[in-house]
Amino acid sequence: MREYNSVRKLLILKMGIFKMKKFIAIILAVCFILSLSGCSFLKDVSDMAQNEIPQAKTFKADGLSIELTTDFLNMDFVDKDYNFIIGNDDLTIMGEKWLNSETELGDFTVQEFAEYHRFLLEKINPTILNDMDGIPTMKYTTTADDGGEITAAVMYYKATDGFWIVTFAADTDKFLKMYDEICTYAKSVKV
Which three-class secondary structure state does DSSP give residue 152? Predict the structure, then answer.
């Protein structure tokens, strides 16, 4: 009986070690995958750490580039509905590409596409389409999850294979204070 108990304990110990090795291997694999997927995020964090005073920095996604500063982080991993999400403490910038092959809107001008998109959003937030230095722009205000108020400027750009919708959003107070800065960022967009 004593021999049986010692063999049993040895098997339990070996199984425990095997399970522990398997668990560690899984943890290491997950860490490796997360480190690969977060490389751009880690590079942005590194840029922020190295530059106390924000420097100009170009962010790129699927044929679009936008000139921001090193205090912005690429947050693509937050929401897969957008082609990019970039943010800092005050401002979030989200970009969504509408491909001609998926929408059959290739003959639209950027103004017609902006009007079409405004119509789609009208049930959510009544908005007016304006022009900001040649960029069709729609502004609206909505309630945030925490009960605060968010103001967003939605801007439209035409690419060779579709359209880009780029949204600049911030708390309403901050948005109003940084509107000129937002306009500078919007004008830096290249497709």
Answer: strand
By CB neighbour count within 10 A (0-12 exposed, 13-18 middle, 19+ buried), where does 168 fall? Answer: buried
> What is the torsional sign of CA 101, 103, 105, 111?
negative
162: left (phi over 0), alpha (psi -120 to 50) or beta: left
pLDDT, tens only, 110-169: 999 999 888 888 776 667 888 888 899 999 888 888 888 999 999 999 998 899 999 999
Neighbours of 87 (CB within 10 A): 18
Q: Tokens 């580039």, residue?
A: 65
CB contact set of 123 (below 8 Å; sequence gap of 6+): none
Q: How is 25-89 classified by DSSP, letter by letter?
A: HHHHHHHHHHHHHTHHHHHHHHHHHH-SS--EEEEEETTEEEEEETT-EE-GGG-TTSSEEEE-S
How long is the chain? 191
Instruction: Round to whole Å and give the CA distance between 186 and 7.
Output: 71
Assigned token pair, 126: 């009544």
